[in-house]
Amino acid sequence: MDNALDQGQVLDVQQLLRLHTITNDVTKLCEKQLRDYLDAMAPLFRARRVLGEHIEGAGRESVAGADQNLAELRELYQRVAGRPFDLRRELPTPLESISTQIQLYEWEYLHEVRTENNYKTVTVKSPMTWVLCYPSTYSPSMLLQVLAGRQARDPDSVRDFVLRACIMNLLFAKQPTLTALFEGLRYRVEVRKSPQFGDLPVVTVSAPFRTMRPPDHLVLVATGLSGGKVFQEVLDLESARQMHDPLRDQVYGILRAQGEDL
Fold first, then answer.
1. Least confident of 13-17, 44-48, 195-199, 209-213
2. Which of 29, 76, 135, 211 has its CA 20 to 30 A from that of 119?
3. Separation of alpha carbons 24 and 234, rounded Å
4. Is 190 helix (H, G, I), strand (E, B) or coil?
5. Secondary structure element (H or E) that encloses residue 120, with its range
6. Which tens digits make up the pLDDT trace of 154-180?
7. Cβ atoms of 124 and 143 closer than 8 Å
8. Residue 229 lies in a domain
9. Distances in whole angstroms, Cα of residue 61 to Cα of each of 51, 53, 57, 74, 75
10. Average pLDDT for residues 177-192, to the nearest whole number?
């Protein structure tokens, strides 16, 4: 995701600082709400719902299509297990049981900023878009450090992250009502890919309004002040003012069809 500031919008340093404060407050509100939703929805994230007895667990649990779902999971895992993860492609079953205590991690991407003499690579975080992850030793950010050789590599932990991302993707693919449920709660579900993760699909959920990245000169100022190489996008105030409400729009559609003047 690359939410650059729209042309015609102008920001200065003071406005950027104010927007960062607003963004942090709104992010805290949305993240708390989303975590509460995920806690309530935890049973819907049971991997056995789509893989049945191919996942370890007490008791028998037959699931229609479980064998086909496993075949699709194997195909995806084998496709993504190579570069950059360098994992063995075998996927013996039954698979280990996975906790449904879903983790949220900010989506991030790399952005090159032009300096006076060269380019500076900045890690940009999108504070209102989160990667949905089953519990794992590595967070997405930690795994990026491992792949870059800046942290020690534990092959089993890398495998767990990749496999669980594949299972999360399969879960949403086989349960479209799960996506519809999030949309009813005003949160948008998408499957994304990060260049650093190759072909691995990750499921993200976003707040009902956008964040944006200001012009590069402000990114340079902000990262220069902090002394780091990480920048956080800020809330697009206009998208918050015009927040989309799916239920309201559907009701308005019915009213218009009945000739009501809105």
1. 13-17
2. 211
3. 9
4. strand
5. strand 119-133
6. 999 999 999 999 999 999 999 999 999
7. no
8. yes
9. 9, 6, 9, 20, 23
10. 95
Tokens of residue 243, six digits: 């927040």
Residue 4 in any domain: the answer is: no
How many independent structural domains does the chain possess?
1
Say if 5 falls within a structural domain.
no
Range of the domain at 117: 13-257
Backbone angles phi, psi at 136, to 5 degrees: -155, 160
How far is the C-alpha of 37 from the C-alpha of 25, rounded, in Å? Answer: 19
pLDDT at res. 81:
97
Task: Please check whether residue 103 lies inside any domain of the structure.
Answer: yes
134-143, 153-162, 239-248: segment of lowest average pLDDT: 239-248
At residue 104, the pLDDT reads: 98
Write out the DSSP string of 130-157. Answer: EEEE---SS-HHHHHHHHTTSS---HHH
